[in-house]
């Protein structure tokens, strides 16, 4: 029985760069990309060709940024997909490798970010669970100083991207993947939670973090796109959206406070 031919379109490095420029990506800008390789069509060269196309569109003075999260570097007690037996927890904590920006793989964000992470010259931020990787002349400025107790807040690359006038590109990804909305959670009343992970020098550590959740981000994105200027287009078979980080964060601050208040439902713990 023969395998059916792949469904198109055929996408190449040049397809990606050309269609990104038509969308409005500008040479020299800073772009935070959330992506889905499978949504693009049949990509000749896979993730490597997409990253090459992104870099072509941005040019040598542009900077490409991607989320390289590693949520599995965490307390097994909170794992749910899949969970592990309670009797394993102590042993898992004692033997889990600590986060290393050079070798810890990204997880749950797709193959394109992992390709950027391992690209020659890429730099990666220091947070064990919510790092970002960047390629380009502004990379160090964006990823340096990511505080170990600030996943996606004022001391994370997101706040740097906001200040530097970066834009978000959703490339086949929905608003549920839009990490910029999380920065808004740090600016409105939000609960605090303990977050456990292996300590860099050995042992286990727990830090207090702002609780973050992408619950209802799809609704938030729908309203944002209705109310604010979002550039929409297509790259290959994928829907693409382009908008400023700062505008998305400002809108999310108002929207979340009104539509998804959390301070009463989950009060701050007494410290």
Low-confidence stretches: 264-271
* Most strands sheet: 7 strands, mixed
Shape summary? globular
Helix and strand content put the structural class at alpha/beta
Instruction: Count the DSSP helices.
Output: 9
The proportion of residues in beta strands is 15-25%
Number of strands: 11
Give the terminus-to-terminus CA distance.
65 Å
Widest beta sheet: strand line-up: 5-6-4-2-7-11-10
Report the order of strands and helices: EHEEHEHHEEHHEHEEHEEH
Radius of gyration, whole Å? 19 Å
Percent helix: 25-40%
The average pLDDT score comes to 94
Q: How would you describe this protein?
A:
The protein is α/β, with parallel strands linked by helices and 271 residues long. It is 30% helix and 19% strand. The protein contains 9 helices and 11 strands. The strands form 3 sheets. Strands 5-6-4-2-7-11-10 form a 7-stranded mixed β-sheet, sandwiched between helices. It has a two-stranded parallel sheet with strand order 1-3. A two-stranded antiparallel ribbon has the order 8-9. A hairpin with a 2-residue loop joins strand 10 and strand 11. Helix 1 crosses helix 2 and helix 2 crosses helix 4. The longest helix is centred in the C-terminal third of the chain and has 15 residues. The radius of gyration is 19 Å and the shape is globular.
Brief summary:
The chain is α/β, with parallel strands linked by helices and 271 residues long. The chain has helices at residues 13-23, 46-58, 89-95, 111-117, 139-143, 157-163, 180-185, 217-227, 245-259; strands spanning 10-11, 30-35, 42-43, 63-67, 123-124, 132-135, 167-171, 192-198, 204-210, 231-235, 238-244.
């Amino acid at each position: 029985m023969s395998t059916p031919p792949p469904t198109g379109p055929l996408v190449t490095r040049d397809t990606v760069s050309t269609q990104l420029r038509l969308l409005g990506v500008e040479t020299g800008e800073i772009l935070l990309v959330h992506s889905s390789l499978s949504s693009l069509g049949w990509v000749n060269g896979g993730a490597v060709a997409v990253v090459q196309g992104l870099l072509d569109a941005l040019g040598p003075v542009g900077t490409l940024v991607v989320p390289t999260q590693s949520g599995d570097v965490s307390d097994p007690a909170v794992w749910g997909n899949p969970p592990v037996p309670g009797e394993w927890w102590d042993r898992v904590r004692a033997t889990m490798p600590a986060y290393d920006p050079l070798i810890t793989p990204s997880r749950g964000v797709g193959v394109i970010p992992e390709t950027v992470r391992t690209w020659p010259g890429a730099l990666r931020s220091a947070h064990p669970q919510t790092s970002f990787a960047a390629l380009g002349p502004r990379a160090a400025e964006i990823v340096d100083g990511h505080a170990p107790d600030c996943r996606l807040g004022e001391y994370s690359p997101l706040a740097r991207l906001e200040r530097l006038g970066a834009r978000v590109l959703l490339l086949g990804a929905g608003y549920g993947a839009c990490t910029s909305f999380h920065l808004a959670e740090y600016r409105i009343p939000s609960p605090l939670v303990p977050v456990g992970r292996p300590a860099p020098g050995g042992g286990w550590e727990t830090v207090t973090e702002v609780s973050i959740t992408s619950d209802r981000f799809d609704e938030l994105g729908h309203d944002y796109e209705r109310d604010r200027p979002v550039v929409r287009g297509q790259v290959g078979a994928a829907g693409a959206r382009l908008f400023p980080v700062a505008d998305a964060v400002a809108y999310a601050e108002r929207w979340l406070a009104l539509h998804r208040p959390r301070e009463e439902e989950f009060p701050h713990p007494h410290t």
